[in-house]
UniProtKB/TrEMBL annotation:
The species this protein was found in: Clostridium cavendishii DSM 21758
Signal peptide limits: none
Family assignment from sequence similarity: Belongs to the UPF0145 family.
UniProt xrefs under Pfam families: YbjQ_1
Protein name, UniProt field: UPF0145 protein SAMN02745163_02565
Database matches in InterPro entries: UPF0145_dom_sf, UPF0145_YbjQ-like
Length: 109
């Protein structure tokens, strides 16, 4: 699926929705490693951006986004509207990242 056909809005400029295929999602559950926690702890002593956690979060978001795209393609969608992210701590040090939206079929106007 073309990533330009994925939006947080509920329409795509220049396209009309011809079929609503329902909710699609991608979910990833990640944990921090002991080594990562030590490295992040050392970075936090200096202050500023804790790059180890930033990279972990970005990776989890990207992976959940890619899984959502795959789920939408399995439903025959060519676009996804209303995309959102959600994150929850499942257990101490274990986080779930969910990317979800509405799979649709669109046609150019």
């Amino acid at each position: 699926m073309d990533k330009n056909m994925v939006t947080t809005t509920f329409n795509l400029e220049g396209y009309k929705i011809v079929e609503n295929l329902g909710i699609v999602r991608g979910i990833i559950v990640r944990s921090r490693s002991v080594v990562g926690n030590i490295g992040a702890g050392l970075q936090s002593l200096v202050g500023g951006n804790i790059t180890i956690y930033t990279e972990l979060c970005e990776s989890a978001r990207e992976d959940s986004f890619e899984l959502m795209l795959k789920h939408a393609e399995e439903h025959g969608a060519n676009a996804i509207i209303g995309v959102r992210y959600d994150a929850n701590e499942v257990s101490q040090g274990i986080t779930e990242v969910l990317c979800y939206g509405t799979a649709v079929r669109v046609e150019k106007i």
